[in-house]
Protein 1
Amino acid sequence: MIEIKKVTKRFNTKNGELLAVDNVDLSIQSGEIFGIIGYSGAGKSTLLRMLNGLEKPTEGTISVSDKLINTIKGTKLREARQEIGMIFQHFNLLWSRTVEENIAFPLEIAGVPKSQRDKRVQELIELVGLGGRGRSYPSQLSGGQKQRVGIARALANNPKVLLCDEATSALDPETTDSILDLLLNINQQLGLTVVLITHEMHVIKKICHRVAVMENGKVAELGDVIDVFENPQKEVTKRFVRQVVDVEDDSLETFTHLKEKYPEGHIWKLTFKRSIVEQPVLTDFIRQFDVTANIVQGNVSQTKNGAFGELFLHVSGVNSVLNEALTYLQEKGVQVEVMSDVN
Ligand SMILES: Nc1ncnc2c1ncn2[C@@H]1O[C@H](COP(=O)(O)OP(=O)(O)OP(=O)(O)O)[C@@H](O)[C@H]1O
């Protein structure tokens, strides 16, 4: 769907040449939610803006739906852009126009007749959950509602790709989640390809299938979100993963602490990989075996491709039953470490 080949972007500044994007190769599949994360200045916005021709690469090629975005101009570029919607951190709405008029704007530019326009606007208002707010002005809306208008406007011409430039960075955590849920729904309902840039790992964790980590204009790491979370390679990636999961191995400290707190019984450390947490393994384990088990500490993260993490259980019961229970968990694919028999 999107092919970025050997793309470099240099800017001429008064302090000389600045390398913003450095020889990037990326291939983004149709229907995928692809995240690009990096700190300020990493080159994310420049890369995103090259995807709809707002910037031209200095070297390399960019194709979206088989159209070479970096070479086409004029009408051809305008037509190609109708297939690529974009939303922005600060919404970029027209303040003197109502919600309906904002959403209708790209349809007017595309020459869609008024009756079709009105119908499409109403569909979009429903799709983004803004029913009843069509006649409001942007100044009368909350941040989340403004971004919903931005999304409706970006979808007006039925694009194949939606580019999201820090779309939730100006929103509070709860509103961020509701906008991310909306993006996820749109991706599933319409099969839309979504490319988003962010500096928040939470955003990547919640909705992306794959992620590229950018640093100094280069892609430092690339992979399925769950693989990157489980096994970050580069220091920059580890820093991002730490925003949402503590990747330091603090098991020993945890164990010492738990042993003091629970002098009787046993402490088991359960490690879950991928989607196994979603299976009712723990419920079955407690139902089937005559053991007492309490979750005393845990850090399980849900990503788009499954969950992973660790749980510390305090268990007690007859040794033979405990052994059976342990075997059951291991057979279900849960890694169990008996940290020590403390009684
Ligand atoms: N039009 C421009 N002219 C000159 N330099 C630019 C221009 N646009 C971006 N840059 C520079 O290119 C580098 C990459 O910027 P870019 O905005 O792509 O990074 P970013 O990762 O999106 O960061 P941020 O989140 O702060 O926007 C920065 O050093 C920036 O100052």
Note: The pocket of adenosine-5'-triphosphate is lined by residues 11, 13, 18, 20, 38, 40-46 (CB under 6 Å).
Protein 2
Amino acid sequence: MTAVELTEASRWYGNVVAVNDVTLTVGPGLTGLLGPNGAGKTTVLHLMAGLLSPSQGTVTIGGKPAWRNPDVYRTLGLVTERESVPGFLTAWEFVLASAKLHKLPDPAAAARTALGIVEMESAQDRAISTYSKGMRQRTRVAAALVHDPGVLLLDEPFNGMDPRQRLHMMELLHRMAEEGRTILFSSHILEEVEQLSGTVQVIVAGRLAASGDYRHIRRLMTNRPHVFTIESSDNRRLATVLIGQESVSAVTLTDGTLQVHASDYGTFARALAKLAKASGIRLTGILPADESLEKVFSYLVAT
Ligand SMILES: Nc1ncnc2c1ncn2[C@@H]1O[C@H](COP(=O)(O)OP(=O)(O)OP(=O)(O)O)[C@@H](O)[C@H]1O
């Protein structure tokens, strides 16, 4: 039962603040670290892994500081985002080397167990260069797991995987979490985090924007203000009707194109069809405006 804890932790690079005053605890089970690119996810994981020192605040693993504490390396495994695996080695050789680096008493037995956990035994004697992306990723997980750590940190483990490989990796993470490990993985895709149905920590521009059950995060995102482009038989008249609605914060009519900013998505969605019908206006299209992930996430910071 090893918890990872950040207390008022910040990390800056020169004048770039990558992580800004973050306090969070990650306990046993599966937790997703969600945020757009550049939000600071990698920096958080590297702080937790003891690869970076916090510029301010503290980062602990099992109550002990992560930085400058070699004991920590014995209790955690890190699967980095960049995929630097030597293709000329077999999975067996790669994982065995990791076991030897950890100076384990029986490296071969540890390598066998780790390769078994990730279900790579049947391909373990082939060169890594012949593997699929998913197999390479599982090999890297095995190398990070070889010393049986209580904490496993994975940076964007699903990147570039096809749906089948993704599913396989999700099952693997679930299984490891059920065994009582503390598993934290980063992602910029809400659906990915949702499917794993763990706790979610959302980080935006270096700050912790939201945290909790994924349903809570989903609700926050759904209830955020939405922008729609609406097509109807009489856009001008519909605009005048909509502007009187409390759930609508702005209406623009540009060259006949009607855009509506709904401050309360649920109320607006329920009212729109009724209002149009009552005014004798036929709705022909409702299109959500293209909103960047960054915009959706930054809404969370403001709530
Ligand atoms: N070594 C570094 N020197 C200077 N700036 C850095 C360094 N590493 C990261 N940064 C900056 O810190 C911020 C956070 O980066 P980080 O890699 O932690 O984000 P991320 O959420 O993991 O993004 P991505 O998913 O794109 O890797 C970014 O603005 C990034 O440019």
Note: The chain has two domains: 4-219, 223-302.
Protein 3
Amino acid sequence: MSTDYLILGARLLGEEPADLVLRDGVIASLGADTAHPRDGVELVTVDADGLLALPGLVDLHTHLREPGREDTETVLTGSRAAAAGGFTAVHAMANTTPVADTAGVVEQVHRLGIDAGYVDVRPVGAVSVGLEGTRLAELGAMASSAAGVRVFSDDGHCVDDPVLMRRALEYVKSFDGVIAQHAQEPRLTVGAQMHEGVVSAELGLAGWPAVAEESIIARDVLLAEHVGSRLHVCHLSTAGSVDIVRWAKARGIDVTAEVTPHHLLLTDEQARSYDPRYKVNPPLRTAEDVEAVRAGLADGTIDVVATDHAPHADEDKDCEWPAGAFGMTGLETALPVIQATMVETGRLTWADVARVLSTTPARIGRVSGQGRPVAVGEPANLTLIDPAARRRVEPAAQVTRSRNTPFAGTELPGRVVATFLRGRATVYDGAPVAHEEVNA
Ligand SMILES: NC(=O)N[C@@H](CC(=O)O)C(=O)O
Ligand SMILES: [Zn+2]
Ligand SMILES: [Zn+2]
């Protein structure tokens, strides 16, 4: 039996509370309660008093680890964690085993996403064969495959060869693609363990200088301008990077940039714990950098927040810092961290949050039917959150298969109460709906 939802009294962005009816995959009405039972259709009423309705969140940067490291995350577990975090679409990065550098692999990931049914999984295609940075992958075949890839990235690695980067930027123009660059000049970061600065010097850990990121971003915006193509900067983390992107945009270059929740909250001071849960690429930077990325997100220089959800096995984090893997989980804490760092500080409104976590990432990834406003006739992709809730992060209670959250024990605001993908609940009463029900 199919289900209609009548959501009573949800707060909409900048508007009075209203009742919403979700029916046949779309928002059928908005305003006073107009739902009436239909034959053969269950009508479920949701009391949304005090809840805020946001368009379903869209992540431009998620690591789902399938194929290859299903012990840490699968398309099913990762997309369920995404729904729990309020997402209705994620982009699955290409650094799997095998690498998503062929039409076959991206179609497989796409198919697994459909079978999971929690969010729209948009596979990212690798830029180079095997992420090796030497030969261009079959970008056109991935674009025209059933997966319809539009975002290409060697994430985890930088496309450091400027000739290859230029060719990739030129090539994706023909199918409206974008190159998402992991900006890290490899020769400036050999053996790097954390941000290069006062703390790394004190701890005796090899440093990752800000210029290793900034020099690649500067080069790439100029390459994008030269060939008239579209560039996206992954997980931008330094004040200098914000300045370069601001300059490029003022010059009219077609560049967009993302920042992660962890770079908006944490600093390199966290490394003093020697706990590898704070080890991430790019590294946590200084308080001045945190202030600069917050300001850049507030003034629109940084277009989106992307999680860079990077699940890792316990054995790769319960170890000495130098042996630890780079990466942190983020799908279930993204919205709470943004509420804490940007909304409760008065730097973003909830409408801005919808823009940076839904509308703009959907536009950059060319994800149709996502990132749309909560309005009549639109696909019913939305999340209901309780902004007044406060919760302590418990790694074992999270939906993701991995426990490497840097926010363990931290109290954060906000809670996802329900998420809907095309009118079907993927999360209800704060918990993911059973798999049999979402993909029934
Ligand atoms: N962010 C990370 O520290 N790690 C990512 C790779 C990446 O995003 O560069 C991963 O795949 O684990
Ligand atoms: Zn990266
Ligand atoms: Zn990544």
Note: The CA atoms of residues 68 and 252 lie 40 Å apart.
Protein 4
Amino acid sequence: MRVRGLTKRYGEVRAVRGIDLSIHPGEVYAILGPNGAGKSTTVEILEGYRRRDGGEVSVLGTDPGRPTRRWRSRLGIVLQTASDAAELTVRETVRHFAAYYPDPRDPDEVLAQVGLAGKAGSRVRRLSGGQRRRVDVALGIIGRPEILFLDEPTTGFDPEARRRFWALVRSLAGDGTTIVLTTHYLDEVEALADRVSVIAAGRVVAEGPPGTLGGRAAAMTEITWTEDGAPRTLATGDPTRTVVELAARFGGEIPGLTVTRPTLEDVYLRLIKGVRDE
Ligand SMILES: Nc1ncnc2c1ncn2[C@@H]1O[C@H](COP(=O)(O)OP(=O)(O)OP(=O)(O)O)[C@@H](O)[C@H]1O
């Protein structure tokens, strides 16, 4: 999947201002960014649901601006808003959608994968918000997509459902499905993404694996300890040496020692700070 110089405006709003992305087959790729950054617009253009103003886009070798039915059947999409709940049961709904695809997965297997086997006979309308979201995910994967787009997929999930969902994403990626994930949960990015791009004000401000995003691996580590009854803090790019020196000074145990590396959240907040919507 390749995007070069993508632009999109809505009247006066320049929602996407020249985005480049390369997403490799089988990769879990996360897109992070504040509300209104242009993530959904970008993803909807990739999905063939929104027209772009400029730039080049290729998804599975096709320009999403000229989508074909066959091409659409190779994509799985879980939109941000939950699907309308009809009077159908969960199993009926999933079976109904399976019929649209040339080589669908088994509906009951998919329901088990998303943790809805016990609700297969319930009407979708009667499900809780998080359970309905799982129906959306089931519909996203029923067609055995080569690329799965997940737009804030775990909103409303309880912690156990999120973990289960993460395992599902890993297993889909393990089977070779490319996953494009937009989310506001940084732990989700850390748990799942091979690479992440941070979009702010319609541009990519950083890209890389979560562990090294924005120079995270080399960023300053904060070391705190207690000395003469008072807390001490030191920021260092060489934490091991600092700890060794402190240990030598104290002749062993360092009182109250903590070593804190910057979290993905620290790095993310630094990256988007000061990006102006000019
Ligand atoms: N259909 C539309 N008509 C007019 N403006 C729009 C439309 N869709 C989005 N926008 C504007 O474009 C900008 C980018 O919106 P977009 O939905 O792509 O952001 P986002 O990064 O997905 O945000 P969120 O995290 O809130 O989902 C925002 O300023 C938004 O108000």
Note: Residues 4 and 20 are 4 Å apart (CA to CA).
